[in-house]
Amino acid sequence: MCMNVYIYMHICVHTYINMYIYIYIYIYIYIYICPPSYPQDRMKTDFGNDLTRLMNHMRTEAENAEVTKHCNDGVWNNGDAAGVANKTACKLVAAGLHHISNIKHTYKPQKNNGDYNPYDNQEFHQFVSCLWLKRVVQEMEKRSISCDIKEGIKKGSKAWNTIKETHCKNQPCIECNLEDDYGKLDTCQVGSDSANVKEKFIDLLTKDKTTEADSTLQELLKTDKNGSLCQRLQCLASRVEALKKDPSSNAVSTNKRKGIRRKEKGITRKGILKKKKKKKFQIRRLQITL
Predict the structure, then answer these.
(1) pTM above the 0.85 mark?
(2) CA 212, 61, 225, 200: dihedral to nearest 10 degrees?
(3) Where is the Schizont-infected cell agglutination extracellular beta domain positioned along the sequence (predicted)?
(4) Domain locations in the chain?
């Protein structure tokens, strides 16, 4: 913390006929307190605490009626693995947004643990939590190898306006748009140490908070880890359908599904296809008709 002090003196002399002289001296002191720096260790602690609170809420409130009502899509009620995965993804996203809308700060003039700037603090923690939710959603998509959960994520994201209007009564209330480009944080630096924000978000989730992330996403990923052959087939079929509806979708091609890649390599190694043009066509056909 830095402090600048300026002293200004003003002298007034009043003389009266009877020769009494009054001298008034006015001293003005201006004190400017510089805002505190934001070192890396403090930022890591604050960001980490926001992530912990978000994931705890996602894990414990995903079955709350205030959350599940946003994910009652009839298409997902047929009991297959793809529907279960999408409904679970929707509830996790909606629970995350529910947490953000309930972040509230009030003025507390206490010496210890006081809050002298509730407006900015509330906005800051809402914003950081929104970035965290976006990062967690990316991790959900990355880890969900078998099931295409994009529809579930989209459904949960659309609930934001309703959730915000219901729960965020104390301004400010940020706009948490999960479709914002996360890559914009590539060059974002915060604090006295010029720490890169995106690197902090990646490291905290994949290193420091791995156990909490695993616990939060275990219900979503149960098909990938312990699902039966039938359940995995149901999820793979949902990916195929997504690709048919939107050929530009990355439901299959950009997801790192090692099993399919090994299968493709196996086909080319056996020499079933000789011409390069036919080989490319066959690989595309494999992805569509899997």
Answers:
(1) no
(2) -30
(3) 42-189
(4) 3-33, 40-226, 257-290
